Amino acid sequence: MTSITVEHVSKQFTQSTKDGGQRVMALNDASLKVNSGEIMSILGPSGCGKSTLLRVIAGLIAPDSGTIYYDKLDLQSIPLQERGVGMVFQDGALIPHWIAEENIGFHLSLRHREDEVPARVARISQVTGFGLELLLERKPRELSGGERQRVGIARALARGPRVFLFDEPFSNLDAKLRSQARIELHRLLNEFPVTSIYVTHDQGEASALGQRVAVMREGRIEQVDSYDQMYRNPINLFIATFIGTPTINLFEGVVRDHQWQGANFGGYPLRPDPNDGKKVLLGVRAEDVVFAPGGVLARVEMATSRFEQRRVELELRLGDEQFTMIGDIGEGFRVGDHVP
Ligand code: ATP
Predict the structure, then answer these.
(1) H helices within the chain, ranges in order?
(2) Three-state DSSP state, 84
(3) Which run of H or E residues covers position 283?
(4) pLDDT in tens, 123-177
(5) How many whole angstroms separate alpha carbon 61 and alpha carbon 76?
(6) CA-to-CA distance for 331 and 21, rounded, in angstroms?
C-alpha cells in the first residue's frame, strides 16, 4: 500500500472581479502525512481548501510550490498511468452514455481485462450487501443519486487503486441514504484496504470513516488527530469551536489563586502557570453542563427538540452569558422557565 505525504504545498487561484482579478490562496503551506492503508478524513469550513488539496494529491492540478509524495516518489515523477488514483466525486462523474457495467469496467477494459468485471461486481455486492448486479444494464440517468454513487465507487475500486480519494461523495443524498452508503463504504474499505482520503462537511461522516481527521482552515492543516481526541483536546480555540455540535460553550473569566473565576460561577482549579488576573476562556461542552442541587438558576431562552436523538437542546441565559445544554426530551422545558 501507498503512503501519501504533502509537504509545504501552496496554491493560488485568480478570481475575476469587476476591477480585474484577485488572487486567492487556496492552499497556504499545507503539510500532511497519510500512512499506508490509513483512512484520513478532511474537514473544514467552506472554502478552506479541502477540494483543492484533494485535487493536488490526485495530480489533477499542480501546486505552485511544495511536493506531493506517493511513498518516497515525487508524484510529478510518476507517469499518469502508474499513479493508480481512484477518485469519487459528488456527482459520480460517470460517463453518461455508458451503462453501469461499462462504467465500472472502464479501467479494466483499457487493460483488456473486462472479463474480470462480473467477479469484481459480485464481490463488491457481497461485501456491501447492495445489489450492484441489478444496476449493470442501466445508464447513469436511469440510476438514483445513491445508485450512481455506488457505481462510481465500484468503478474506482475495480481498477485496484493505490490511493482512494473521495470528494463529498454522499453530499447529495438524503440523511438516511447517506448513512446507509457510509456503512457500505466502511465495509468496502475494511475488506479492500486502500490508503484513502475522504473530504466532507459532515463531522459524523468524518469521524465514522476516518481513523484520523485533518481539520483545515484558510489553506492550512490546523490539527490532525482522532476525532475523539480533537473533541476532548483541541489544540486551539478554532478547533474547539469548529469540532462538535452544538458548539462548545465559552465563558470568560480570570485567574484568582490558581482558580478560574467567571461572572456567574467559578472556583475551578487551574494548572499553576497562569498568573492571577490573567483572562482565561473556559470551554464546556453542552453535554457536560448538568443540573445540580444548589446550582445557579438559568433562564430557558429556547428549547429545540431533537426527537431522533431523544434529547432537547436548551439555550440558557445566566446574567449576560448565554450557553447550551442537553436536556431530557420528557422534561417539557418551556421558554421563560428557570432551571434547574
Ligand atoms: P467547499 O467545502 O465549499 O467545497 P473547499 O474547502 O473544498 O470548499 P476549495 O474548493 O478547495 O474549498 O476552494 C478554496 C478556495 O479557492 C476558495 O476560496 C475557492 O473560491 C477558491 N478556488 C477553488 N478553485 C478555484 C478555481 N478553479 N479558480 C478560482 N478560485 C478557486
Answers:
(1) 50-58, 100-104, 106-110, 117-128, 145-158, 175-191, 203-209, 227-232, 237-242
(2) coil
(3) strand 279-284
(4) 877 777 777 788 888 898 998 888 888 888 888 888 788 999 999 988 888 888 8
(5) 11
(6) 56
Model pLDDT for residues 36-80, shown as the tens digit of each residue:
999 999 999 999 999 999 999 999 999 999 999 999 999 999 988
Burial bucket for residue 115 (CB in 10 Å: 0-12, 13-18, 19+): exposed
Range of weakest confidence among 102-116, 167-181, 314-328? 102-116
Query: What's the CA-to-centroid distance between 50 and ligand 1, angstroms?
Result: 8
Contact 115, 91 (CB under 8 A): no
The CA–CA distances, whole Å, from 265 to 32, 251, 262, 295 equal 41, 10, 5, 9
User: For residue 295, what is the DSSP state?
Assistant: P
Nearest CA to ligand 1 atom 1: 46
Ligand 1 residue neighbourhood (C-beta within 6 Å): 13, 15, 24, 26, 44, 46-52, 201
* 298 membership: H or E segment, kind and range: strand 298-306
Residue nearest to atom 8 of ligand 1 (CA): 47
Radius of gyration of the chain (CA): 24
Q: Which of 82, 61, 60 is nearest to 70 (CA)?
A: 82
Kindly report the protein residue whose alpha carbon is nearest to atom 16 of ligand 1: 26
**Residue whose C-alpha is closest to residue 315's, from 340, 294, 298:** 298
Determine the distance separating the centroid of ligand 1 and the alpha carbon of 273, expressed in angstroms: 41
**Angle between helical axes of 145-158 and 175-191 (0-180°, round to 10):** 10
What are the b/e assignments for 116-152, b being 16+ CB within 10 Å?
ebeebbebbbebbebebeebbeeebeebebbbbbbbb
